[in-house]
């Protein structure tokens, strides 16, 4: 289990009081994540940030259920991949009592059924009337994802004569890309922020029954005890927060075939003040000035 500083010398029975613990310690962290493009982006960025702070970092990709179970069982130190309170609600209800909620790292996220704008329907309720044009299929991602279970609920609630095709995030976007290039009708499970909304003209189908719920946010979750075991690591992950523009820039590089770590490194190198704040807690000069001005106005 990682996240705890480990000493290279430990006191044994019979050591004298003058013995000291070697100050050279290994700082380690294990990050769990799901293979959504946004979570690939945030995880690889955080990996580089922690390496800059002196940590040896391991990242492990799992499905959503295994992610929550791994946090509850302390197999992972933390994740930046938790879509709450809607998308992964079932996993939070199952494991949340044994997991620490650290901070929101991305606001105003959404999931739903998405079609190209040339598709002439606007609501989930219209899918059955156009079943043949969609080949009776909704193209999904990995079967353990929260958006998949929500879509299964949507199929039941709207009595859709459709099958939900399990794939992966990459498989779904490849299918979407092929359909758009051929101007074929397709409906996919998708979320925002996502690079596909910048590359293609897409729209969410209206959801009058509210199956997909209100907007989500992405949270950083940690194993219980991490704050006490490694306050430095906990401090860094508690300060991690970024914007849609930030994550979009990394995801667009990923979509263009840039290797994951290289895409993350580009963002890290272009945002040194933000990275320094996450590591040290020292606010960027412009943000600190803005906060000081706000305080003066309110006094």
UniProtKB/TrEMBL annotation:
GO terms for biological process: choline transport; glycine betaine transport. GO terms for molecular function: amine transmembrane transporter activity; carnitine transmembrane transporter activity. One of its GO terms (cellular component) is ATP-binding cassette (ABC) transporter complex. Keywords: Cell membrane, Membrane, Transport. It holds the Pfam family OpuAC. Its main location: membrane. Residues 30-270 form the ABC-type glycine betaine transport system substrate-binding domain. It comes from the Archaea. SUPFAM superfamilies: Periplasmic binding protein-like II. InterPro entries: ABC_Gly_betaine_transp_sub-bd. The keyword RNA-binding does not apply. Residues 1-22 are annotated as: Disordered. CDD domains: PBP2_OpuAC_like. This is Glycine betaine ABC transporter substrate-binding protein. It comes from Methanolobus zinderi. The lineage of its organism: Archaea, Methanobacteriati, Methanobacteriota, Stenosarchaea group, Methanomicrobia.
